[in-house]
Model the fold of this input.
Amino acid sequence: MILVTGSTGQLGSCFQQLSKGNPSTDFLFADSEVLDISDKKCVQRFFMEHQNIEWVINCAAYTAVDKAESEPEKARQANVKGVKNLAEACAACGATLIHFSTDYVYHSRQNTPFEESDSVSPKSVYGSSKLAGERAALKVYPQGTMVIRTSWVYSPYGHNFVKTMLRLGAGRDSLNVVSDQIGTPTYAPDLAAAVMQIIHQVESADVSKEKIAGIWHYSNEGVASWYDFAVAIFELSHLKCRVSPIKTSDYPTPARRPPFSVLSKSKIKATFHLDIPHWRQSLEVCLKEMDEKV
Done:
């Protein structure tokens, strides 16, 4: 059985959609009302009640980057304590934990994609809490924890940059968007599909369970600034809103973002033979799906 925590969030919703095309796979979806991962006793009780869990895909997280600066303890409850609780429960029953982290653990002036082994130096409460969560899980259960760092996640579900731009672009003639933060958008359904591919490879014995432990990177292919991303959104959705590039210093936010956080996918592509789409290609898929839902 595959347990998906945070099942009603952006990424969890993508796994719910994927489960419809995988009738032979047994999924268990749990949102925060059913499973509060920050409550250790709640986690222990849940795992006692469901003793056939083989995989845990942790989509539960505190993701309000700026708000975390004023409520760091809330961020740590979900992103550190909750992750440790899941890792301990997985270690006790032998399940494999797949946990998602962030490009915000990096913060340097380099201009080449980050490798998993590169040094980390988060400058925000959110990034620090995600890094602490990674380390807690890998310390508790190193042989059975897969950490996937990803970046700029969006989808037809939840709150994200694409939906914000579409909302603002429909009501304004012009927008200013930061152009000196460089990374890569990640389409959540692509990430979810990649995870399912990895699980299927382990289940079919193409890859050993032990081999997937540790830190990995996944984002779509390509590189963009938030400005590039916004321009593409309006071009592909045929909105007439004009986008002007601005500097980070012109748009101060409570949390500091990394100036460059492009992730190298060499390791995950070589190990699991993943075919990763370019971010612009996946953006087009997302916008078409959102258009069909209207």
In short: Residues 2-158+185-220+262-276 form a domain with the Rossmann fold fold (CATH 3.40.50.720).
